[in-house]
Amino acid sequence: MATTHREYIWEIPVRITHWINAISIVVLSVTGFYIGSPFWDSPNSDSVLPMALMRFIHFVAAYAFTASVLFRIYWMFVGNKYARWNQFIPLSTERIVNFIQCALFYGFMRKEIPHSPGHTAIAGVSYSIIFLIFLYEIASGFALLYVANGGGAIYNIGGGWLLRIMDLGTIRMLHHVFMWVIWIFVIIHVYISWHNDIIERNGLMSSIFSGYKFFGKHH
Amino acid sequence: MSEESIYESLLRKGVSRRDFLKFCSTSAMILGLSSSTVPKIAEALEKKERPSVVWLHFSECTGDSESVLRASKPSIAQVILDIVSLEYHETIMAPSGHAAEKSLKDIITKKKGKYIAVYEGAVPTADGGVYCFIGGHKAIDICKEVGSGAMANIAVGNCACFGGIPAANPNPTKCVGIKDILGGTVVNLAGCPMNAENFTAVVVHFVTFGTLPALDKHGRPLFAYGKCIHNNCERRPHFDQGQFVRQWGDMGHRLGWCLYEMGCKGPMAYQNCPTIRWNEGTSWPVQAGHPCIACASPNNWDDAYPFYKRMEGVPGVGWQANADKVGLGIAAATAAAVAAHGIIRAATRGKGPSDKEEGH
Question: Could you give the ipTM of this predicted complex?
């Protein structure tokens, strides 16, 4: 391992938004479960207001999540080359080749993951899709708030407009469906990160804390 | 009859001055007006003649007429009926057949621009509107003819407002609400049925001020449809406290807990049921232990369905499985697949490419 060097990949905003997203997704899912179907009968006491509390936490976490997602999208245009939008949408020949090589690797038709200091092209595409899902979760959340509050300019901009193209029942149903898609993503995301960390020995798992990855000299 | 003022008509029916003023106060209260407007309302009802009303029925069940007519105490029923001069109402008018047809023709020609048109029921538009005929005329034609000469158009009940049950999916007769036929300003007194007190309040407002009350984006008067039922519900504290009815007749149901888990659509519904209630303030669905079905919302038969579940089913999976059951299943399958892959990789490590790479 003496021949390795370390490279700064993930800037601070990338790491912070990643962890705000991760924590808020956990908080939003737990509180969202309670709001969607209250799983706990509370004591007969007016000093405990679990639904009010769960809703409050859900909304606070939702605003943190919204700010984090929007900031990360902004950072796609001002961050370093690993944070850029073109890492998420493969348009260059290099990224398309990377995508095909990744697909071959994940399809058991190639021994090694193509060298990709930042995201692999397949990972980038999966994050583009997950960000679209994030945006739907945010918009549908605001649409539900818009209905519950009978209007409101911020709720309208945030997602009230969805009500003009979809009915409320479908909006709510997809709000739940996409939460599950996010969790399926989380399972695969964490597993592949861990798996590739072991295969490549590049410190992938620690890189989302430190920002650094390690590469052998031959790369 | 309509030369008589509203007050005179009420006196003739044996309503006391005291009851009359009570009615004026109640109307001001429902409309959300201050008490200083009560004398103004009283003066208007004393002096102005009763507005002529033509009440039309299209694709509907006459539930709104029932709502108006079946008030439990006769005095209020009289008030509601007597503040207007009901010139044409298919269910309760005396003439029938050609005489009835003639009376409608007479009103819309002689009182052109001076009558209020009230519509009950949706208008079918498929195949040129042949699915609803009254006296040999299509509903769509009657609606246009009466509506064009009315000084105010009021749609009562969800069918007349938004299409209601006749317009529910798949809507074979392409039923629509009155506003979709007439355009312009139509007051939508939504509900299934509409609350008679709100109808009276609209008429009182019109008689007193000469204008229609302020409307929301669905054409519903803000005084009656401006607030979310959930936010005014007497069971709301149980919602915040996390106390829910889980089954019909369980302890929570008997104690009057929140009906959220039983599919209550109060959080998406707008009407003044919790404050005005029904049948002279006797009760309303949630007070009686039944979840709200958002009957005053556009397309509630599709949007608020299923009525007794929190969430609709996932298309293609079946109505029993909601998004959470499906999602949990797929997530569990994914976790199992990932675990299996991990175990296989660990077991085959000695032969895997990762081990070889360790060499350099």
Answer: 0.80
